[in-house]
Write a sequence for this structure.
């Protein structure tokens, strides 16, 4: 027996009220836990889905332009010092940055302008697997959506212009390629291009291990895109690394909106729960003024009375933290299944559990603070009137 | 042991100070059984509360073992009430969710340190002194009015106080039960306990070694 005995016994005596208070606070904690887990899963799911619709960082060789004029007449800008990138070094450098685990796709490109018959056309060599991660919207209008050694995928416009169909032959830089499929219209520049395997095109052009630019898709949830951009720039001197502002911004806004919504709703729920705890302790103080007066007459200090009353609120809060988190995890798991968030599942993190536990304890103390202080201020002489 | 000198106390009533005590002086020696008597509103309970440090006088002083209560800090007064002074009220004021023995131990529950086995034995011994050792594990709801008041007396004894202040301890009890409570207090006094009791029952006052009558906030008679 010690100072804990009094609040614990009092809570046990009013078991129904205690259970109701724990249930109410647990619902608050469970809602917050479920919302946080859901927002995390929704954010990651959104990121993955958004990343599938394009890259958000572009790595290109650094170029300098020179404005040329002669005799007062502007002759336009001339690009000088055009370089390509070394494929293996560039890819290794990108995959070696600190936030490498936040990169969902690294898609290098080798581009050249060639003629098929007499018609000029752009051909882009791609790493097909990486390309499909950022262009999941590609689909075959005819033929197969594949890109093996010696095969070409034709954009819809290019196929029409060049009269290409699956199984047809195309000669690029003197090497024959077979058309494996024709892409459906995408509304982008892809429609006018031919796509071949990166290494096959490099060899055909006699420029092995060279790429012209690299598109990178980064998952931005929880990591600022600026940091990834800076890390890439530091790892790749002599290149320009540009975050595609609008793409990044819209993705971040979507993810942040979900997170902000979760935080706002959680805040309201927790505030309500805190008010409930505070009201419960206030009611307990009012009901037990005689008891508090008696304890003061028995020599209890104000600090002891404050502790007694706070402990009631904290006990309710801690019980709710355990029950609420367990219920929150269970609810979020069920909701994730209902919302079809793929393989997303709530992850039990001891640090997060401890943090929520501590936060709820702190909130309970704060909620109990006004009534506990009021109880501590009851003077024995006031109690005498009641006694 | 306990000396009050020229104690004055007023309470505010309708923007005016209503004097309750108008200069009361008395002393209590170790082992005495002093009764304060008087009609309702005479100021006897107020005097008891001032003497037990629960109220502060407007003027005058109260000294316990030579120390002025008013000069003590709040912590010292708390300590005094936890060790040297004990209170028995008209109502038993037991905590309804603690057993009789746990109620007796209530003065020791203000800290984190668990109550020792010695204290538990001490609590049982106090209950034995009031004849309730066999009901130590009962909740107050399972005890009669007289038994609850006896538990309250045991609670007042457990700290081995220098003085017990009893404010009409028989006030809520019937005649027979009140008589039993008075018998217990008399016996404890005979064992050496100093008792300062307020009552308006002349029969109970007659059991004290000294009676002080309060009238209109002053001592009207002492014998």
């Amino acid at each position: 027996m010690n100072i804990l005995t009094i609040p614990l016994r009092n809570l046990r005596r009013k078991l129904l009220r205690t259970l109701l208070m724990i249930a109410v606070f647990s619902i608050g904690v469970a809602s917050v836990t479920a919302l946080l887990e859901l927002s995390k899963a929704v954010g990651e799911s959104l990121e993955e889905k958004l990343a599938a619709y394009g890259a958000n960082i572009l790595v290109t060789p650094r170029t300098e332009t020179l404005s040329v004029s002669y005799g007062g007449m502007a002759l336009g800008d001339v690009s000088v010092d055009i370089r390509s990138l070394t494929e293996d070094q560039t890819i290794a450098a990108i995959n070696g940055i600190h936030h490498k685990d936040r990169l969902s796709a690294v898609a290098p490109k080798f581009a050249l302008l060639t003629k098929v018959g007499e018609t000029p056309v752009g051909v882009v060599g791609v790493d097909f697997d990486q390309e499909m991660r950022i262009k999941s919207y590609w689909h075959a209008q005819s033929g197969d959506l594949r890109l093996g050694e010696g095969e070409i995928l034709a954009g819809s416009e290019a196929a029409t212009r060049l009269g290409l169909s699956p199984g047809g032959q195309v000669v690029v830089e003197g090497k024959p390629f077979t058309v494996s499929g024709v892409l459906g219209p995408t509304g982008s520049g892809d429609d006018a291009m031919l796509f071949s395997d990166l290494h096959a095109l490099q060899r055909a052009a006699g420029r092995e291990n060279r790429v012209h630019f690299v598109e990178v898709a980064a998952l931005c949830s929880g990591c600022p895109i600026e940091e990834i951009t800076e890390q890439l720039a530091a790892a790749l001197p002599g290149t320009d690394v540009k975050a595609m502002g609008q793409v990044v911004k819209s993705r971040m806004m979507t993810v942040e909106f979900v997170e902000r919504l979760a935080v706002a709703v959680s805040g309201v729920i927790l505030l309500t729960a805190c008010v409930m705890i505070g009201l419960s302790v206030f009611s307990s103080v009012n009901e037990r003024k005689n008891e508090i007066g008696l304890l003061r007459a028995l020599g209890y200090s104000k600090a002891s009375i404050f502790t007694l009353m706070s402990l009631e609120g904290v006990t309710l809060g801690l019980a709710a933290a355990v029950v609420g988190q367990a219920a929150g995890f269970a609810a979020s798991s069920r909701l994730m299944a209902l919302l079809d968030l793929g393989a997303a599942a709530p992850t039990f993190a001891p640090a997060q559990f401890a943090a929520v536990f501590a936060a709820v304890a702190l909130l309970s103390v704060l909620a109990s603070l006004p009534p506990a202080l009021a109880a501590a201020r009851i003077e024995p002489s006031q109690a005498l009137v009641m006694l | 042991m306990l000396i009050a000198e020229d104690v004055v106390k007023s309470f505010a009533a309708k923007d005016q100070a209503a004097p309750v005590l108008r200069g009361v002086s008395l002393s209590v020696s170790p082992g005495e059984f002093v009764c304060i008597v008087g009609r309702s509103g005479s100021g006897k309970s107020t005097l008891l509360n001032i003497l037990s440090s629960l109220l502060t006088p407007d003027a005058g002083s109260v000294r316990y073992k030579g120390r002025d209560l008013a000069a003590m800090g709040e912590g010292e007064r708390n300590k005094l009430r936890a060790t040297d002074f004990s209170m028995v009220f008209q109502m038993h004021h037991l905590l309804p969710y603690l057993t009789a023995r746990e109620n007796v131990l209530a003065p020791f529950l203000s800290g984190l340190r668990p109550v020792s086995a010695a204290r538990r034995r001490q609590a049982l011994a106090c209950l034995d002194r009031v004849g309730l050792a066999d009901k130590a594990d009962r909740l107050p709801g399972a005890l009669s009015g007289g038994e609850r008041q006896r538990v309250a007396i045991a609670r007042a004894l457990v700290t081995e106080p220098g003085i017990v202040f009893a404010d009409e301890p028989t006030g809520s009890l019937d005649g027979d039960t009140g008589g039993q409570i008075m018998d217990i207090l008399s016996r404890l006094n005979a064992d050496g306990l100093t008792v300062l009791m307020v009552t308006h029952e002349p029969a109970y006052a007659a059991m004290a070694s000294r009676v002080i009558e309060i009238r209109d906030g002053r001592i009207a008679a002492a014998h």
Chain B has seven helices and ten strands. The first strand of chain B starts at residue 2 and ends at 13.
